[in-house]
Structure formats: C-alpha cells, structure tokens
Amino acid sequence: MAAASVCAPLPAANPLGHARHMRLALSRRTYISTAALRMTRLRVLKVCAAAAETSNGAVSIDDSVRARARNPARSHTISVYVGDESGMINRIAGVFARRGYNIESLAVGLNKDKALFTIVVSGTEKVLQQVVEQLHKLVNVLKVEDLSREPQVEREMMLVKLSVDPERRQEVMGLVDIFRAKVVDVSEHSLTIEVAGDPGKMVAVLRNLKKFGIREIARTGKIALRRERLGENAPFWRFSAASYPDLEGTMPPSSFLASRNSPFNVDVNLSSSGDVYPVESFEDIRVNKVLDAHWGVLYDEDSSGLCSHTLSILVNDSPGVLNIVTGVFSRRGYNIQSLAVGPAESEGVSRITTVVPGTDESIGKLVQQLYKLIDVHKVQDITHLPFAERELMLIKVAVNTTARRDILDIADIFRAKAVDVSDHTITLQLTGDFDKMVALQRLLEPYGICEVARTGRVALVRESGVDSKYLRGFSLTL
C-alpha cells in the first residue's frame, strides 16, 4: 500500500491556469520595459532641448523658473490722470480688457480740470509696464503712475447690510466700535454699517461679520495718494493758492449757491462714441460738465421728469465686463455722473454702482438693455426707494504751521481724519454724501488743494424704509 501510494502519479497541472500566469508575467515585463524606455527618451529630449536653448542664447528651463520667482504676479495700484474727453472710461477699461486683465477695483474721482482713475490690477512687473505704456498713448492722458512701490495712503469704503436679530445686536455694535465703523440704518432684523480703511481692514471686517449673515455689500474701489516727502525736494513744497492768514480769492456763499442753481453750458455737439461723458443732443438733457467740481448731480425732478437715477448692477467678476457694461451707456448717449466698482457679497460677483441722469421711461429701457448682457445677474434702480449713499475722498491740502490748526478744526466739524502730515501738507480722509464732499472741498480751496482722490458713490436700500428725502413734506409728530 505504501509503495503503491509512493509510486502513484502526481495530479496533472491545469494548462489554462499556467497559460494565464505566463501572460500576466509577460505583460508585466512588457509594461515595465516600455515605461523605462519612455522615461529614458523624455530625459534625452529634455537634455537636448536645454542644450539647444542654451546654445542659441535662449533662457533655459531652470532660468525661466528663476525668472518667474524673481518677477511674480502681484497687485498693482495705478493712478491715471486724464483730461475732459469723451469715452475715456471705455478706452482705459479697454486697454486692460484686450490684454485679458481683470480690474479688481476701479475708482473714478472727477475734479474741475481732470479725472483721477485709481485702478487695482494683478500682473507681473514686465507686463504691467507694457500696459502703462499703452495708457500713455491714449489721447488726453496727462499722467500714469504705478504707486505699488511708493509710500502711499490707500483707502477703501464699503456699506455692509447684516441680518441681525435684537438679541445679537449688542455683539455687532461691539465690532462696530472696534473697527471705528458707523451705523447708517437700523431695522428690526437688519443693520447697515459704513466702514472705511485700508484693504487689510476690509478683509478683517468681513471675516468678523460673516458669522452674522451678510445680505449685501456695496464697496468702492481703492483710492491712493502718495505720502508727501519732507523738505524742499517734495513735489508740493511752497504750493499754496493764497498766502495765510490774508486769504485771497475766497468764494462767497452767494456765488456758490448761484453756481449750483444756474444752467450749465453743455456742448451738444460732443460725439457719443465714447462711454459715459457725452449726452445725445436730441434728448435735450442739460447737466453740468462731468469734470466740473459739482459733478452735475440732479436730485430733484424737474418739469420734464429728468432726475439722477442710482443703479445697482451685479455682474460676473471677469475680464472685460466693465467695458461691456459701460458700452451700453455710451451707445445710448447716457452721461454717467458717478461710477464705483467693487466686490459684492458673493464670490466671483462684483457690484457696479452708477448714477445716471434720465427720465423714468428712458432709465427703464436702459435697465432692460443691461439685462440682455450675459454677465449681468441683477439690475436695480433704487432711485425712488429710501437708500443710504456714501462716498470716500482723500484730499491733500497745502498748509504751514499757522494754517494747520485751522485745517484740523475744519476737519473736526466734518468728522474727517488726518491720515498723513508733512511739514507743508496735510492729507484728510472723509466719508459722507455728495453735498458733504463739495462743502469741505470748497472750504479748503483757499488754502491750496494739492491733490484729490475720490470714489464714486455706493448705495444700499434702507431696510427701515425711511430717509430724509422720503420724509420731506410730511409733518412729524413729536
């Protein structure tokens, strides 16, 4: 039995299983050899390409990496001073749009003889230098400056509407005091605050307020003025409109009021091929010049139904959108009196706040045209609703040791803040409505205004449902 068991034949192996194992092993060896061959060829190609580029005097792969590290993309603040010319906003925005740049923020400050565009855009130093050269080629561009590496005073301003229940309102008021913000509207379940400061402060405010629930944000673009140097080599050394204390050329209040109530001269033959400045002659809209000191605002409706309309437009935050939106205004001959562009409450969305004169019928047609744009999410005409509006201004005034005290007293009356002081100038920051901006600027003109950087107006609807304009004509019970 034992011999029989020893001598018994072994069971035959499965031929199908053996063949499968052989095929798997062969395919594994083939895959490894093929991958090794591909890696070898890739190394050879890289070496040959590097050698060829080096021999031709071109930049090698390592050199390009080092170049990118030395010249990274960063945020640039560009100031563009332009003269009074039709279509300037569209032309400047078009320079960035044609090169694929997305304008992060845009602030347009209009002054008596020039406009100051403050543009924030990201890019490398080399490419931004090319953009600056292209801006210089535009007609009536007086000066283009990149203030990114200069000592500067930079400020933004925003209105934030929060969803706040009465039991959490005390906590929000604590944050308002910490960030030196102001409450501009209160309702039963909401709170609207105004806050101004540098970009870092804006980020900190939004992070702390996010937990309460942010309904809406209306944010201006960033404005910036170069900090004044000390000594006789400073740009505005001995700059003054009149000697102090014998001020000359002071405008009496009567002439100021007369200038606001008198009709303004408008050249009806201006071309409307631009974006915002001209007005079509057949519409017979008489407003003061867009670069005038008063900015041509019409608050009260006249006999023809013409008044200033405030539009809030939500658009995609993508390159070229601003150029497309302002193109709608230009093709219909609308005269934009104010423009502010900044991030909205949702990521990837920007809010454009603009003021346009027109009748209710014409503005209604304009809103319908804006809704036809692909990148437009929402257009709201808040003119006939109670709303809170604010602007931000930086103004640099020439002073001496005698006049500085008077300037600071005027600033205290208007609740303005001194943000930069030198031995011959002082820079003030002011937030408020349009009339407040004009009043302060008029009072400071005799001392000598060096520079003014001013944003457009931002506005949000008041959830309380009332404001001063809404209450006019009604008797209030005490």
Automatic annotation (TrEMBL):
Listed GO CC annotations: cytosol; peroxisome
Cytoplasm listed as a keyword: no
Gene Ontology BP annotations: isoleucine biosynthetic process; L-valine biosynthetic process
Family: Belongs to the acetolactate synthase small subunit family.
Pathway noted in the entry: Amino-acid biosynthesis; L-valine biosynthesis; L-valine from pyruvate: step 1/4; Amino-acid biosynthesis; L-isoleucine biosynthesis; L-isoleucine from 2-oxobutanoate: step 1/4
Name the UniProt record assigns to this protein: ACT domain-containing protein
GO molecular function: acetolactate synthase activity; acetolactate synthase regulator activity
Keyword Amino-acid biosynthesis: yes
PROSITE patterns found in the cross-reference section: ACT
Keyword field: Amino-acid biosynthesis, Branched-chain amino acid biosynthesis
Domain ACT residues, every copy: 77-149, 310-384
Signal peptide positions on this chain: none
